[in-house]
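ESCALATION

Customer reports they have been waiting on this structure for their group meeting. Please prioritize. Original submission:
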Amino acid sequence: MEYWDLVGNPAGETYRQLIKVLCDYSDKFYFVTRKELKYNPDILAQFKPYALETYRTKKWANTITKGPAATVYIIEANQDTCRLLQQTASTLYDWVAPDLPEDLTFLKNNFAWFTCTSHEEFGGFSIRSEFYRKLLDQVPGLEIEKVK
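Update from on-call: job pushed to the front of the queue and completed.
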């Protein structure tokens, strides 16, 4: 297993291409909302038809909260949801309250291969094969560094 961290905040075309690769090679993704924060209800409504599951938890990728449980929205990764992700934000770390849900995480076969902690501006990849490592090269302008 290799771990790669994002350097900077993917924006503009780099953000759109990153989302395309993540959607194309994932079964689903999720984001979270927290009871104590406000979010744009229109954004949540746009994703609702594609929601596979929602549940409440105090633990998700890279996060354990001592506060109230968060709601995790598991969303089908497809062309429509990819387009929504691309149109709703212009940078990866735009996915933060009060406008957008937080902590985009992409899964393939229930393995989280991309995780993001939006409010801390952290994103990274967990790579299990050379195939997935090479996918990152398809995103022009994506800056990553291997975790040693």
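Sent to customer with the following note: DSSP finds four helices and ten strands in the chain.
Escalation resolved.
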